[in-house]
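In this supplementary section we document a worked example of the pipeline. Step one takes a protein sequence of length 481 as its only input; no multiple sequence alignment statistics are reported here. Step two produces a three-dimensional model, which step three serialises into structure tokens for compact storage. The input and output of this example are shown verbatim.
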Amino acid sequence: MKNAYKGNVKVLGFTTLAFFISFVVWFNMAPFMTTLKSTFDLTNDEVALLAVANVTLTIPARVAIGMLVDRFGPRNVYSWLLIILSIPCFTFALSTSFTQLMISRMFLAMIGAGFVVGIRLVAEWFPPNRVGVAEGIYGGWGNFGSAAASMTLPTLAIIFGGEDGWRYATALTGVIALVYGFIFMRSVNDTPEGVTYKRPKKSGALEVTSYKDMVGLMLMSLPVFGILAFQTYRLDHLEFITSTTATIIYISLIILFIYNISKIFNVNKDHLKEGVPEKDKYSFKQVAILNFAYFCTFGSELAVISMLPQFFEQTFSLGVAQAGLIAGSFAFMNLMSRPSGGWFSDMFGRRKTLIILTAGLAVGYMGMSQIGSTWPVWLAVILTMSCSFFVQAGEGAVYAMVPLVKKRVTGQISGMVGAYGNVGSVIFLTVLSFVSPSIFFLVIGLSAVICFACTFFLEEPLKETEAQAAEEKEQQKAAAL
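The serialised model returned by step three reads:
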């Protein structure tokens, strides 16, 4: 058993770097929002729309990628995701109009779905009693890509020089993603030697274990389509698309929603009719609560890192590079806080850890709602970093539990939970477009209070943890023979 997971540190390193690069590419726009506004003469509505576009398509992409990774394996899926999505990164850098910026960001948002792939891959390479800290390292150090983008891209733009410095800086991130996609394909395997990669019995929808859970799954898919419909409304309202195009999109979303409902029913009807063995059961309530927890944690992080450089720049009258460096402090804590959330979960219990961290999350955002121009900058930075600890440690605690709900559908559960993180970011950014930053932070804090109450209904996933450990032990014994 000592060498059962031989090479797992190497796989964790390669996968974390893939996620890090994904985040650098995904958030290579945030440090240049003021520059883009000036260069393209954008209105405040157009700036807000770009920020929301940067996370919208990540929502359905995470659900779809979750299904693909369970079926085709994480190595191939992550590699091709990086390779293909380097293309919209290049088109963004070459954009000459708001329309081109918008379309590029909408497609580029899908690179955020890479997170789901790594969750399944890391879960394959680490035992249940260490998966929390491993996922925390993967998520935390990978998420640091957003801070790296804020801290380094403005400086790179200055080094490149001229009005097009931002274009060269963002294009460089696309080159890195393209090259690393091929490196990743040659460097990792889906599972350790002797371990079978488990695939769902049917693909296309998450397998559940009761009719009540099937109804719950159908209801939980509503916000995904609702957010896309709302974004269509905003595009129509800002005259980015015509009313006819909007109507076509609405009808397409309704058809897709009906198809999704039918797919959920068809995937689950047979095994629910036959009866699900006790050992295969899991509670969908777990998934629903984790969805909302990630809505508040990762959703708020995405929203905050998208607006924080501009917030610091305007609140404290800072330069673009200085504001980006200071704003990066929010994501900087990922290096230690998300792994800490996973480690606390492994050591002291997943449910208890998440309860404590969501309480800290609520208090942190309440405090950030009070930041103003009269504050010393150093105090605002300290509060921002303190709040970010609970945000990212909470994310680590969520994904310390996700791989242990039901292993063979980890990709799909991870995809749904991850999608709700993006639902949260879109909703929070939409709120920001109507209210002041102070109210924006307050709304997130109140959402965290509700999440805190929900976490008391979570259950520790002991049964799945024990079953997974026993099964892996048998597979490794068989491989040794």
